[in-house]
């Protein structure tokens, strides 16, 4: 997501920096380190972050519009009450993050790693989660309507009571995940039965 005239920063050290409440527009960061930084309330628009590290960073209440965070590392980051709209999180990894109240709208999380993520009852409708790693993720009661989960790894993922109407899941996902009480449309119900070896006449 390159924007003409964007400011480019490469390999900059922002560890433990206090950057809360700032407004960034059309800035580009490559290989920058934001470990432990206070980014609470940060607002980005049209920014690009490639291979950046956000370990233990505080991104609570931050707002991101049409920004890209590609192949970034979010380990033990605080993402509580953050808002992401039309953003790309392609190939980024999230380990032991705080997701409470996060809102993701029209975002691309293809190839993202969300293994063991606690995403209970979150609004995740319409997301692109193709080939994402959701192994052992807790998606109990999550709203995944219309999301694309094609190729996603869902071994031991909890989708109990999740809303999967209009979501795209392949046969492997329908076998791997715990779908007890999930709400699905007729098409997915038929695919689920077929994936479990039932013969529908």
What does this structure look like?
By secondary structure, this protein is mainly beta. It has a domain at 1-108: Pectate Lyase C-like (3 Solenoid). It contains 2 helices and 11 strands; from the N terminus they run βββββββββββαα. The chain has helices at 171-176, 186-195; strands at 7-10, 23-25, 27-30, 43-45, 48-50, 63-65, 68-70, 73-75, 83-85, 93-95, 103-105. Strands 2-4-6-9-11 form a 5-stranded parallel β-sheet, with no helix packed on it. A 4-stranded parallel β-sheet has the order 1-3-5-7, with no helix packed on it. It is elongated. The model has no long low-confidence stretch (mean pLDDT 92). InterPro entries: 5peptide_repeat (IPR001646), Pentapeptide-BTB/POZ_domain (IPR051082). It comes from Amycolatopsis camponoti. This is Pentapeptide repeat family protein. Pfam families: Pentapeptide, Pentapeptide_4.
Compact summary:
InterPro entries: 5peptide_repeat (IPR001646), Pentapeptide-BTB/POZ_domain (IPR051082). Helices cover 8% and strands 17% of the residues.
The radius of gyration is 18 Å
In CATH terms, what is the architecture of the domain at 1-108? 3 Solenoid
Largest sheet: 5 strands, parallel
Strand order of the largest sheet: 2-4-6-9-11
Shape: elongated
Total strand count, please? 11
End-to-end C-alpha gap: 48 Å
| Total number of helices | 2
Low-confidence segments, ≥5 residues, pLDDT <50? none
Looking at the structure, the CATH topology of the domain at 1-108 is: Pectate Lyase C-like
Relative strand content = 15-25%
Output mean pLDDT: 92
How helical, in percent, are the residues? under 10%
Organism: Amycolatopsis camponoti
InterPro entries: 5peptide_repeat, Pentapeptide-BTB/POZ_domain
Protein name: Pentapeptide repeat family protein
Pfam families: Pentapeptide, Pentapeptide_4
């Amino acid at each position: 997501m390159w924007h003409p005239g964007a400011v480019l920063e490469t390999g900059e050290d922002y560890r433990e920096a206090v950057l809360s409440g700032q407004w960034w527009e059309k800035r580009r960061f490559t290989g920058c380190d934001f470990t432990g930084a206070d980014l609470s309330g940060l607002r980005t628009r049209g920014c690009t972050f490639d291979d950046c590290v956000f370990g233990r960073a505080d991104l609570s209440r931050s707002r991101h519009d049409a920004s890209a965070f590609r192949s970034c590392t979010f380990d033990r980051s605080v993402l509580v009450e953050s808002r992401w709209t039309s953003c790309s999180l392609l190939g980024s990894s999230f380990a032991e993050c705080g997701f409470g109240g996060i809102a993701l709208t029209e975002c691309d999380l293809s190839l993202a790693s969300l293994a063991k993520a606690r995403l209970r009852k979150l609004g995740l409708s319409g997301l692109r989660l193709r080939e994402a790693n959701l192994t052992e993720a807790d998606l109990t009661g999550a709203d995944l309507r219309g999301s694309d989960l094609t190729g996603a790894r869902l071994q031991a993922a909890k989708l109990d009571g999740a809303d999967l109407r209009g979501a795209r899941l392949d046969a492997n996902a329908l076998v791997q995940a715990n779908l007890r009480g999930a709400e699905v449309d007729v098409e997915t119900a038929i695919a689920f039965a077929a994936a479990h070896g039932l013969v529908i006449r």
